[in-house]
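hey
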């Protein structure tokens, strides 16, 4: 099968034109409409695989099904537009310095795929390796940082604990003095961490999957999961076999349906009679006016429940922990803004006069152990890639790769074996709260 880079360099297999630099200029000066990055095609009656959710996880799964396993009769359906959920509402931070061996190996593979993504998908995803600092403000936090550093080193991850003097060299704007309200005692430093353009990741996977024949169907809302032969609610549940989905555009038959819907995960799985231990909570973020770049690294404070990075355009992007209540709202709140501003200024007093331009929220599907739910469910043919909480964007590439392998081989890949739904019944939890509770 030809590489996606070669397929997209001039024209892809569906005849979509690719432009040279001068061609882009001529096209920009003309009055002719731009061709679509991916096709708009009629919805078919049946597919080999239907993926619910047009974010990074769903699109990556479709792409790797095509490129790694030759499965191209695939439909990705989304009730809004591609990237309209968590993939377009996150703060675009990537890293692999997690707490458990399972989590470290998993996210390190994802970071590797992010590093090669521009070449693999032939699109500039604007990956910027900044370095990632997780600050410790007390002895307990510092012990946790040392613990994480040792786990990381055993997995060959570049991660170490540094002192306030070294922190100041990396981020001069931080207040590392002993007079600070929350003195900085040290930090877990992860040089490979950084930021990436989340929209470009979505567009790249969508365009590349389209080049192999995968279909993307926007404004296609799933109203029900069709299951035969099961038990429980409406004949669904354990022992059943998925046969397709019912959408606002009609019925689609498929022997495999994959749930990649983040904050809506439990509602979609409930349609198939599968109960998930997931609660949905908003995660808020905000961005400032652009200023001269002064923050070279991603800075996270678990004690203050905040994190901040600076884009190439100069905006500061802030976030916090998830809201302390279940909700499906994606609106920002004044309470969040006030708390965030106070905590950030305690870290960097010099930014007090910067203007906040906008804020927003995304929906997070939180599991009891802060780890995802991946793979098969009691309903045959119905798979899940959900439960990502605040860190789903970081895991997009490896999740798609692993889920594609799971679908194609009908076997659970070793890299996601610990994340199966059955672990909650067995008590084999994967405790990532110490590395993921703040989200970034």
């Amino acid at each position: 099968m030809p590489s996606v880079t070669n397929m997209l360099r001039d024209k892809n297999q569906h005849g979509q034109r690719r432009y040279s630099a001068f061609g882009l200029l001529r096209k920009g000066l003309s009055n002719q409409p731009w061709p679509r990055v991916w096709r708009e095609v009629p919805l078919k009656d049946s597919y080999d695989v239907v993926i619910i959710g047009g974010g990074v996880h769903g699109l990556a799964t479709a792409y790797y099904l095509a490129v790694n396993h030759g499965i191209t009769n695939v439909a990705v359906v989304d009730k809004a537009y591609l990237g309209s959920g968590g993939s377009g509402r996150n703060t675009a931070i990537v890293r692999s310095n997690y707490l458990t061996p399972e989590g470290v190996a998993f996210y390190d593979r994802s970071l590797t795929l992010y590093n090669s993504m521009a070449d693999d998908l032939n699109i500039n995803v604007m990956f910027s390796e900044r370095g990632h600092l997780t600050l410790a403000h007390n002895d307990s936090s510092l012990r946790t940082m040392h613990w994480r550093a040792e786990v990381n080193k055993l997995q060959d991850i570049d991660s170490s604990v540094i002192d306030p003097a070294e922190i100041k060299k990396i981020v001069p704007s931080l207040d590392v003095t002993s007079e600070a309200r929350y003195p900085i005692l040290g930090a877990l430093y992860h040089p490979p961490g950084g930021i990436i353009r989340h929209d470009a990741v979505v567009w790249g996977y969508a365009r590349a999957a389209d080049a192999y024949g995968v279909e993307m169907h926007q404004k296609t809302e799933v109203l029900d999961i069709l299951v035969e032969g099961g038990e429980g609610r409406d004949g669904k549940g354990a022992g059943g076999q998925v046969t397709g989905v019912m959408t606002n555009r009609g019925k689609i038959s498929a022997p495999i349906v994959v749930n990649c819907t983040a904050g809506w995960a439990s509602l979609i799985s409930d349609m198939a009679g599968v109960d998930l231990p997931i609660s949905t909570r908003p995660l808020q973020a905000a961005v400032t006016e652009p200023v001269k770049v002064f923050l070279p690294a991603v800075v996270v404070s678990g004690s203050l429940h905040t994190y901040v990075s600076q884009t190439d355009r100069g905006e500061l992007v802030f976030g916090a922990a998830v809201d302390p209540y279940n909700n499906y709202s994606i609106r920002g709140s004044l309470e969040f803004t006030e708390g965030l501003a106070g905590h950030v200024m305690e870290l960097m007093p010099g930014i007090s006069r910067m203007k906040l331009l906008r804020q927003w929220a995304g929906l997070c599907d939180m599991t009891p152990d802060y780890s995802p739910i991946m793979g098969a469910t009691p309903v045959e043919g119905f798979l899940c890639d959900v439960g990502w909480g605040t860190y789903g964007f970081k895991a997009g590439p490896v999740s798609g790769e692993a889920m594609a392998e799971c679908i194609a081989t009908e076997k659970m890949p070793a890299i996601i074996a610990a994340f199966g739904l059955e672990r909650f019944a067995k008590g084999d939890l994967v405790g990532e709260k110490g590395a993921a509770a703040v989200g970034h």
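The longest helix spans residues 101-121. Confidence is low (pLDDT under 50) at residues 8-16.
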